[in-house]
Design a protein that fits this description.
Elements (H helix, E strand, L loop, with lengths): L2 H36 L5 H5 L1 E3 L4 E4 H32 L4 H15 L2 H15 L6 H25 L3 H9 L4 H30 L2 H6 L9 H7 L8 H10 L4 H34 L1
Antiparallel strand pairs: 1-2
Helix pairs in contact: 1-12, 3-6, 3-8, 4-6, 5-6, 6-8, 7-8, 8-12, 11-12
Length: 286
Amino acid sequence: MTKSRQIKDRLTAFFIYLCSAFSVCLLVGIICYVFAKGFKTVNWEFLTSVTSVLKGTVGIAGNIVNTLIIIFITMIIATPIGIGSAIFLNEYAKPGRLVTTIEYATETLSGIPSIIFGLFGMMFFGEKLGLGYSILTGSLTLILMVLSLITRNTQEALKTVPDSYRSGAISLGSGKWHMIRTILIPSAMPGIITGVILAVGRIVGESAALLFTAGSAKLLPKGIEGLLQKPMQSGGTLTIQMYLSATSEGDFDTAFGIAVVLLIIVLIINLSTKVLTGHFDVSRKD
């Protein structure tokens, strides 16, 4: 290796490390700034009560419940549809115009701005179907948003499974669906879980689409009956409440407190992804 090539390699390595360090410092800086501003606001009362002028309390319990309900409704519908679509595209559909069109539509769907989904959800689910501003309207809108993410991640995970697994199972007399259910899905499970958890993370952080569809109510449901009726009622998530606190109400302490809660949730989601994918990788090797 010539001296000039060595200098170029060292400069390239230096800039690579510099960019990596900048990314890490940026992340640490944002986390430290948000925690410094909002950590003093987060306490047990903040997490378990709702904001009330009469009681003199400031809390986000209602927003936490709304967020969990939206996550549950969205994922219980989007996950089987997304995984099923990926299995069809990768294992059943013959390569051709149909598959190319579906994949192109899926990729385009993932690139549409969320506020457009919100406008569509408000007009179609809210107005045409008569659901109004409700958690169900927000969940149906989010299904359209995360479906492409789950589908594409599952499809890529299925492509990583060697073809020898398929041919070996078929040669031993296994049926198509039995082979998919017992061989392919368990082998691709780390990638599938990654896609599902990333979809949950997008739901947690979404605000633009929900502003048009779910509303901003923050009251806690009363009892089991109230909880069952909640999907048909307006409900603001944590991100919606953070936006309203910072803009309409000018309450930046509450906004930064919610930001701390959201950061903790995101960190938990990322750690869960690492743990679950690692667990399934070990199980697959065993």
